[in-house]
Amino acid sequence: MTARSRISQTSDLAPLLQSFFTDKLMRQRQASPNTIAAYRDAFTLLLGFASTRAHRQPAQLGLADLDAPTVGAFLQHLQTERGNTAATRNARLAAIHSFFRHALPRAPEHAALIQRVLAIPPQRHDRAIVDYLTRAETDALIAAPDLSTWTGRRDHTLLLVAIHTGLRVSELANLRVSDAHLATGAHLRCHGKGRKDRATPLTSPTAKALRTWLAEHAGEPDDPLFPTRRGTPLSRDAIARLVAKHATTAVATCPSLTSKNVTPHTLRHSCAMALLRAGVDISVIALWLGHESTDTAQLYLHADMAIKERALARTHTSGGKLRRYTAPDTLLTFLHTL
Fold it and tell me: Is 164 noted as a catalytic residue in this protein?
């Protein structure tokens, strides 16, 4: 008897979870590894919480053990005990809702329980203004690595690419040598969020730095663009650590960095803000960053005070006498269009 069949005999929850991950997520939706990992983590936490609450092993839990009060208590536990933000709490709830929608036609005897769980709303929360670096701060950060060392030259090139392309940290980590196209129309190809490929153009200094790095790297097409000393890809955590390390070094030449929480995502925001201030349309910025829609990119408009100040200046009256509006004569308007 297989482990799967043994679990199925003792729980009505396990077969539903197994079909949710293998059939719905992997086969039907062809979800990305990151999505599967996020859903897996959500249910690992939920099952651990419900197991403690029910005093049974996770494999012995039934769907009835994941009722609305239990799920509600779990969500509260995430925020009060684990210190998760409202956004993280809502992401866990989205995974739970997705599973219960999958379970509804497969476990009609639990329809009432499932509907009560699906009725749990996401938590409303304030959207923070994005943190980004100024031109002086990004210049100081790029100059921070020690160019006399191999890792310093790698980090310098990686920071330059991150700041000028706005790639996600996972996209940076997954770049391969073959993804860099440095002839006319230099660009990077990346496999982004939601299994979407996109090409991001490179500035001349970034393309030049990449050519120099690739000549030293001398890697095969499938090798990581930014490897470790052992030739393996840098992990997301490793990239976050090197960004923080060089930000600390850069404080010596740019003290304003002291007040900034510099992460790989901060560099992504910095790229978007630089594009916005250069006059690039918000829809183009959304495409550049690989956003699903322009709605996500709207947060950069809220962060840029200069844009708001220019808008305010355009609404300022000159102090002249206000005149009553008179509609144009329709016949004259017609004649002027001829």
Answer: no
CA dist 103 and 11 (Å) reads: 14
Per-residue pLDDT tens for 29-64?
A: 888 888 898 999 999 999 999 999 999 999 899 999
Q: What mean pLDDT is predicted for residues 262-279?
A: 88
Q: Which of 168, 246, 260, 269 is catalytic?
A: 168
Q: Across the strands, what pairs with 187?
A: 181, 201
Nearest to 61 by CA among 12, 8, 112: 12
Give yes or no for residue 301 having a pLDDT over 70: no
The total number of structural domains in the chain stands at: 2
> What pLDDT does 192 receive?
62
Catalytic status, residue 168: yes
Catalytic residue among 102, 164, 269, 300: 300
Q: What is the CA angle 169-175-179, rounded to 5? A: 140
Buried b (16+ CB within 10 A) or exposed e, 43-79: bebbbebbbeebeeebeebbbebbbbebbeebbebbe
193 is catalytic: yes
- 20: domain CATH number? 1.10.150
Q: Are residues 114 and 140 in the same domain?
A: no
Domain containing residue 303: 135-313
132 counts as catalytic: no
Is residue 333 one of the residues assigned to a domain?
no
User: Does 137 have pLDDT greater than 90?
Assistant: yes
Residue range 318-327: mean pLDDT, rounded: 54
What beta strand segments (E) does the chain contain?
180-181, 187-191, 197-201
- Please state the separation of Cα 187 from the chain's center in Å: 21
Q: Are residues 234 and 172 part of one domain?
A: yes
Q: Of residues 77, 101, 191, 193, which has the active-site annotation?
A: 193
- Quickly state the pLDDT bin for 327 (edges 50, 70, 90): low
Instruction: State both tokens at 56.
Output: 């049974």
Q: Is 188 helix (H, G, I), strand (E, B) or coil?
A: strand
| Cα distance between residue 211 and residue 122, in whole Å | 47
Same domain assignment for residues 100 and 46: yes
Q: Do 244 and 155 fall into the same domain?
A: yes
**Catalytic choice (154, 246, 260, 265):** 265
